[in-house]
Design goal:
With 538 residues, the protein is an alpha/beta fold. 34% of the residues lie in helices and 17% in strands. It folds into three domains: 12-243 and 360-413, FAD/NAD(P)-binding domain (3-Layer(bba) Sandwich), CATH 3.50.50.60; 247-357, Succinate dehydrogenase/fumarate reductase flavoprotein, catalytic domain (Flavocytochrome C3, Chain A, domain 1); 438-525, Fumarate reductase/succinate dehydrogenase flavoprotein-like, C-terminal domain (Methane Monooxygenase Hydroxylase, Chain G, domain 1, Up-down Bundle).
Length: 538
């Protein structure tokens, strides 16, 4: 009879939670001098970054300017983007593209130059891409470099349980130390079903967004708001959580799980049409002068309006007027996937619906990725940096990941490295195995359905009240489950999603106006002053 080895204790210079573009970029910047651990709750390729189709926004074309990119971002952000953060990202975006090219990312070219496409909300062609699978190509390249870098240790199938802080341990700060500090984290190793302890003077949350809080989403199953929820529990502020971006064009098909039809399809002339039964006519010009090139919030609301007005299951996106050779060159993956499902996009329009796509708010950070908790940085979609405001401009997300990964790494590299603290092991001596796991799956399903119905593209006070009531009941059940049973990935993800749902609803209830991605029937006008929604833990 073999005995189970005790849970492991790991010590590093930097812990990075998340293996998307933000996390891997930070790891590569830190690895020359620091011992880095990258934890990811599934495989290295299973995050949202690999799903990004469109590309990376950067000022690279003759005639384009930083000022124009900044202005486009501010307009899309509906007056709520922070000008300093926006300019910081925009001015560092070409450097980020150059870094990826140096690593070997095979960006699409035309006549020996980078091919730049245009997407909704942009006044110029400034989107560098790898056909229509930019994220996958970037991730493939970064993963190859990370796996071959000696100072980086990978921990796949490790789910964040919680951050370890000085206040949680009840340890008083020594002379010269801050009152509270992140000392490391606990993570569930699915291969052993044990919770391991990781200590480090620096932790970076690069855990992505929370799209799985909604029934329909373009996000992978990993997008459960883990970092946002953990940072909130550790005492960090979160900001602008009411601004959930619904991508206008998710493929509508029973077998097309979360398949996104890129913004670039509209950028290259794709037209949104009503169903043939309603005349098959264009409708975007009646909603906005920019038509299909309007920002995502405008297009998503227009589609939602037309679907509800006509009782349609979907609308259609038509690119069939472009030659087949053009489609195969620009959208080979979209063409192939649709063809697998019996849709030839060179001959017929694509059925599409809006779906939850991007979390514009998150953990409050500064321009160095620092959070409210000493020793804790956060980067990527898990954060509020001030860039996106009330609505994210297309293709600004990947560049935000890289700019703040470098910024956070620079800040960490400039900080002397103390010895990692000795931390207590995870205590599960007073819990048992769950006897009714169906409770978790039922609560997960219920949460995603009422969030879609009550906290979706169009909101009302009554809907938000109903959602808040249901969330409170779920939190009670989940707290009881967490206190009495062994943790599992499903339980941890559900716990985090319910926490994020509460933050979204509280933020939405606090905003008495309609702005960007937050549209309320009870407050349809935009307030004169644009202010972020900042929530602070009790």
């Amino acid at each position: 009879m073999t005995s189970t080895p005790p849970p492991a204790q790991h010590a590093f210079d930097v812990l990075i939670v998340g293996s998307g573009l933000a996390g891997l970029s930070a790891a590569l910047h830190l690895a020359p001098t620091h011992r880095v651990a990258v934890l990811t709750k599934r495989g290295m390729r299973d995050g949202s970054s690999a799903w990004a189709q469109g590309g990376i926004a950067a000022v690279l074309a003759a005639g384009d300017t930083f000022d124009a990119h900044v202005q486009d971002t501010l307009v899309a952000g509906a007056g709520l983007s922070d000008p300093a953060a926006t300019r910081f990202v925009v001015e560092h975006s070409p450097q980020s593209v150059d870094w990826l090219r140096a690593l070997g990312v095979p960006f699409s070219e035309e006549d020996g130059h980078l091919h730049l496409t245009r997407e909704g909300g942009h006044s110029a062609r400034r989107i560098v891409h790898v056909t229509d699978a930019t994220g996958a190509a970037v991730q493939k390249t970064l993963i190859q470099h990370v796996r071959s870098t000696p100072n980086i240790t990978l921990f796949e199938n490790h789910t964040l349980v919680d951050l370890i802080t000085r206040s949680k341990l009840g340890v008083s700060a020594a002379h010269g130390q801050v009152a509270n500090q992140c000392l490391g984290l606990y993570a569930l190793d699915e291969s052993t079903d044990q919770v391991h302890t990781f200590s480090a003077p620096h932790t970076i949350l690069a855990t992505g967004g929370a799209g799985k809080v909604y029934l329909y989403t373009t996000n992978p199953d990993t997008a459960t708001g883990d970092g946002i929820a953990a940072a909130w529990r550790a005492g960090c502020r979160v900001t602008n959580m009411e601004f959930i971006q619904f991508h206008p064009t998710c493929l509508y098909h029973p077998h097309a799980k979360s398949f996104l039809i890129s913004e670039a399809v509209r950028g290259e002339g794709g037209r949104l049409l009503l169903p043939a039964s309603a005349g098959g006519t264009r409708f975007m010009p009646q909603h906005d002068a920019r038509a299909e090139l309007a920002p995502r919030d405008v297009v998503a609301r227009a589609i939602d309006f037309e679907m509800k007005k006509g009782g349609f299951d979907c609308v259609y996106l038509d690119i069939s007027h472009q030659p087949l050779a053009f489609i195969l060159e620009h959208f080979p993956n979209i063409y192939a996937r649709c063809l697998e499902l019996g849709i030839d996009i060179s001959k017929q329009p694509i059925p599409v619906v809006p779906a939850a796509h991007y979390t514009c708010g998150g953990i409050h950070t500064d321009l160095a990725g620092r959070t409210d908790l000493d020793g804790l940085h956060a980067i990527g979609e898990a954060t509020y940096t001030g860039l996106h405001g009330a609505n994210r401009l297309a293709s600004n997300s990947l560049v935000e990941c890289m700019v703040f990964a470098r910024s956070a790494a620079t800040d960490i590299l400039a900080t002397p490295l103390p010895v990692p603290a000795a931390l207590p092991a995870w205590d599960d001596s007073r819990v048992t195995d769950a006897d009714e796991a169906v409770v978790i799956s039922h609560n997960w399903d219920e949460l995603r359905r009422f969030m879609w119905d009550y906290v979706g593209i169009v909101r009302t006070n009554k809907r938000l009240e109903r959602a808040a009531h249901r969330i409170a009941l779920l939190q009670g059940e989940i707290h009881e489950f967490y206190a009495h049973f062994h943790v599992t990935r499903d339980l941890l993800e559900l716990r985090n999603l319910v926490q994020v749902a509460e933050l979204i609803v509280r933020s939405a209830q606090a905003r008495h106006e309609s702005r960007g991605l937050h549209f309320s029937r009870d407050y349809p006008a935009m307030a004169e002053q644009a202010l972020p929604t900042v929530l602070k833990p009790d």
